[in-house]
């Protein structure tokens, strides 16, 4: 086994049906029902025009500054897949640019997440193909390896297994574990419905904020009536 330099098959992936069911759910609502304990970190920001990111993870682990295995992943990932790259968060060298973006668009991929840097940022910002990254630099990548494809990766403590559901919007990035997709979807739908009701009450002037004083009394705050 060439640990650290290998390409593995992906054994499972969240279905296109479940990807579509999450299409209109805000990442914040999904995050709330996951106990607010999972996140891809505040550095990972949308570098494109803001279109939402949804799709099964196709993972890549590479050494900082090297994109050899990302190039390989472009040819292996299936339409709709989101390539998730753990590059250690280093921003010294860009790992993708406009040319690689064109390949991903051509292959019908669902997006790319890079815990690292990109370049050709103006061209990427002008397109709707989802690109999340931690920064921008003009310095190009190396192509020497090593790296791994379809292994578990971690971004700012968020563990991503191949085939997990990746979600992203203007609030950031989130991974929904493969085995929890159905339960988390049901909880997030209920959360979204509750927020819609709360917004309607706010707009109608009937919003009840009595819980604030109740919480303050429970916590022993002085001066609460």
Automatic annotation (TrEMBL):
Listed SUPFAM superfamilies: RraA-like
GO MF: metal ion binding; methyltransferase activity
InterPro entries for this protein: RraA/RraA-like (IPR005493), RraA/RraA-like_sf (IPR036704)
Pfam families reported for this sequence: RraA-like
Alphabetically ordered keywords of this record: Magnesium, Metal-binding, Methyltransferase, Transferase
Cofactor(s) needed: Mg(2+); a divalent metal cation
Record-given protein name: Putative 4-hydroxy-4-methyl-2-oxoglutarate aldolase
UniProt source species: Teichococcus aestuarii
């Amino acid at each position: 086994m060439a640990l650290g330099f290998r390409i593995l098959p992906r054994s499972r992936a969240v279905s296109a049906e479940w990807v579509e069911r999450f299409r209109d759910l805000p990442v914040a609502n999904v995050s709330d029902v996951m106990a607010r304990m999972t996140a891809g970190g505040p550095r990972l920001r949308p570098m494109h025009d803001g279109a939402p990111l949804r799709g099964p993870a196709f993972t890549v682990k590479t050494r900082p500054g090297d994109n050899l295995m990302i190039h390989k992943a472009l040819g292996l990932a299936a339409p709709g897949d989101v390539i998730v790259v753990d590059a250690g968060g280093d921003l010294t060298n860009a790992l993708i640019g406009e040319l690689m973006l064109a390949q991903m668009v051509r292959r019908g991929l669902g997006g790319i997440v890079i815990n690292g840097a990109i370049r050709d940022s103006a061209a990427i910002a002008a397109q709707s193909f989802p690109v999340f990254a931690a920064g921008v630099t003009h310095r190009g990548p190396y192509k020497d390896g090593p790296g791994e494809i379809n292994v578990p990766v971690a971004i700012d403590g968020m563990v991503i297994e191949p085939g997990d559901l990746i979600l992203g919007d203007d609030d950031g990035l989130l991974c929904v574990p493969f085995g929890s997709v159905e339960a988390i979807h049901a909880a997030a739908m209920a959360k979204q419905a509750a927020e819609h009701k709360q917004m309607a009450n706010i707009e109608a002037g009937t919003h009840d904020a009595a819980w604030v004083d109740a919480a303050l009394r429970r916590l022993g705050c002085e001066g609460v009536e």
